[in-house]
C-alpha cells in the first residue's frame, strides 16, 4: 500500500521527515546551547524538556479535541444508523490542520533565533512548538487509520 496508494506514501514520507527533524534537534540542541549561549552540560540537558512539554501540551490538545469531536458526533447522530454519526474523513484531520502550520513556524523561529543577540528562551519556545505540532500531526494521521 505504501507504493500503490500515493497518499499513503506521501503521508509516510511527511511523517518520516518530521521525525527526522526531531532527531536533528537532538543533535542541534547541545551544540547551539553550549556553543552559542554558553550553557553547561547540565543546563543544556534541561532544554530537552521543552520537547517533552510540547508533547504533553499536544496530549492535552488531543484529549480536548477528541472530547469535542465526540460531543459533536453525539449531537449530530441520526436515528437511521443506530445513533452513531459518521464523521467526514476530513474531520479526523483537524488536529493535523492545527499542528501542521506550527511545524514550519517553529523551524523558522528556531533557525533565526539561535544567536547570542536573541534571548535563549526563543529557541526553547520554538522547540516546544515543534514538539506540539509533531505529535498533533502524527496522532491525527495515525488515528485516521484506526477509525
Topology diagram in text:
Elements: H1 6-36, H2 41-46, H3 49-75, H4 94-99, H5 102-113, H6 121-145
Helix pairs in contact: 1-6, 3-6, 5-6
Q: Would you mind describing this structure in some detail?
A:
By secondary structure, the protein is mostly helical. Helices cover 73% and strands 0% of the residues. The protein contains 6 helices and no strands. It has helices at 6-36, 41-46, 49-75, 94-99, 102-113, 121-145. Helix 1 packs antiparallel against helix 6, helix 3 (49-75) packs across helix 6 and helix 5 (102-113) packs antiparallel against helix 6 (121-145). The two termini are 18 Å apart. The model has no long low-confidence stretch (mean pLDDT 87).
Please name the defining characteristics of this protein:
147 residues, mainly alpha, 6 helices
TL;DR of this structure?
This protein is an all-alpha fold and 147 residues long.
Cα(first) to Cα(last) distance is: 18 Å
Instruction: Tally the beta strands.
Output: 0
Query: Unreliable runs, pLDDT <50, ≥5 residues?
Result: none
Name the structural class. Answer: mainly alpha
Please give the largest β-sheet.
none
What's the overall average pLDDT, rounded?
87
- Fraction of residues in β-strands: under 5%
Rounded to the nearest angstrom, the radius of gyration is: 19 Å
